[in-house]
């Protein structure tokens, strides 16, 4: 998959004229291969050049830099307007070379790319228009994606809140249910105790009534016995008087 950039780069200043010159750089990165289209702002001429992965590897080995870091640094220099600190870009129109130098304690040539004259300078404008249109589409897609993502997050939040509400409601329901169970058990226990006391009271009442009936029976029997005895005594005392006749002599 290729990555395309169009960048306006400030070239190394010309001390003789003290003029700042620019190049418009269209770079296409395909894995570890690079294609360049350059337009010089001073002369209006266009150039093109390529570098392959083997050239990157050879240059990184010469500089004793890891290959990926070498490519990343070069990509940052060529695709961003500010580039990297310490790096300078030069366009040698006489020898048709694009040179990137790294100046720290000393100047080290980071890359030297051979160029050729390119006649179709209008292609860069077409590429720029295509990139702008693609960027607009990407922005719209990103906005759409962001909108969809926001809606998804909103729905997830709503579902999460609903689930929390369900859990809270369920806990409240269990709490109320347990309280009702305790109340029912208490009422059931009170009812059983009341029934037990009622049965005891009825039993005691029955026993008291039975005792009373027995006492009444004993009392009636005793009264009857007393009446019979009294009648017998009265019959003895009330017997008719007989005259006693002495026996014959």
UniProtKB/TrEMBL annotation:
Q: Could you tell me where the Basic and acidic residues compositional bias lies? A: 206-223
From start to end residue, where is composition biased (Polar residues)? 224-234
Q: Name one GO molecular function term.
A: DNA binding
Q: Does the keyword Nuclease apply?
A: no
Q: What SUPFAM superfamilies is this protein classified in?
A: XRCC4, C-terminal oligomerization domain
Region spans: Disordered: 205-249
Q: Does the keyword Ion transport apply?
A: no
Coiled-coil annotated residue ranges, if any: 177-204
GO CC, alphabetical: DNA ligase IV complex; DNA-dependent protein kinase-DNA ligase 4 complex
Q: Which UniProt keywords apply?
A: Coiled coil
One GO biological process term = DNA recombination
Cross-referenced Gene3D superfamilies: 1.20.5.370
Listed name of the protein: (Mediterranean fruit fly) hypothetical protein
């Amino acid at each position: 998959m290729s990555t395309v950039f169009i960048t306006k780069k400030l070239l190394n200043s010309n001390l003789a004229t003290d003029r700042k010159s620019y190049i418009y750089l269209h770079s296409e990165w395909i894995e570890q291969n690079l294609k360049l289209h350059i337009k010089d702002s001073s002369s209006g001429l266009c150039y093109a050049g390529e570098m392959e992965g083997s050239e990157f590897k050879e240059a990184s080995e010469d500089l004793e830099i890891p290959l990926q870091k070498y490519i990343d640094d070069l990509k940052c220099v060529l695709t961003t307007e500010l580039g990297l600190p310490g790096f300078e870009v030069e366009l040698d129109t006489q020898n048709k070379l694009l040179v990137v130098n790294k100046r720290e304690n000393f100047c080290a040539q980071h890359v030297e790319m051979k160029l050729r004259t390119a006649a179709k300078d209008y292609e860069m404008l077409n590429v720029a228009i295509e990139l702008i249109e693609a960027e607009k589409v990407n922005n719209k897609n990103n906005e759409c994606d962001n909108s969809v993502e926001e809606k998804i997050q909103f729905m997830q939040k709503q579902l999460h809140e609903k689930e929390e509400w369900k859990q809270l409601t369920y806990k409240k329901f269990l709490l109320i249910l347990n309280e009702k169970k305790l109340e029912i058990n208490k009422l059931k226990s009170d009812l059983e105790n009341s029934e037990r006391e009622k049965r005891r009271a009825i039993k005691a009442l029955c026993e008291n009534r039975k005792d009373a009936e027995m006492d009444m029976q004993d009392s009636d029997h005793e009264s009857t016995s007393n009446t019979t005895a009294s009648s017998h005594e009265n019959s003895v005392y009330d017997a008719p008087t007989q005259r006693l006749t002495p026996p014959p002599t």
